[in-house]
Design goal:
about 80 residues, mainly alpha, about 0% strand, globular
């Protein structure tokens, strides 16, 4: 795993890209699963970073490959 990341040039996320659709899907699911997460303190957001990364990865996989996970990873 890399300790740092460098991005050169502009980052463009188009409205109809798979990445944007996955992000929007993640936002909807996270809002339903964690309705109180809204604008909580930074410490709470950081403690849930892995949740969001995993959820985004699942959403991106579902959008790009049109398949849903075989099991519900939010159940533990």
């Amino acid at each position: 795993m890399a300790d740092s990341m460098n991005i050169q040039g502009p980052v463009e996320v188009k409205d109809n890209s798979a990445e944007r659709v996955a992000f929007d899907l993640m936002s909807v699911i996270a809002g339903k699963e964690n309705p109180t997460m809204g604008s909580d303190c930074q410490a709470k957001k950081n403690s849930n970073r892995l949740y969001y990364l995993n959820l985004y990865a699942e959403c991106l996989n579902a959008v790009k490959y049109q398949q849903v996970p075989e099991s519900d990873s939010s159940q533990g």
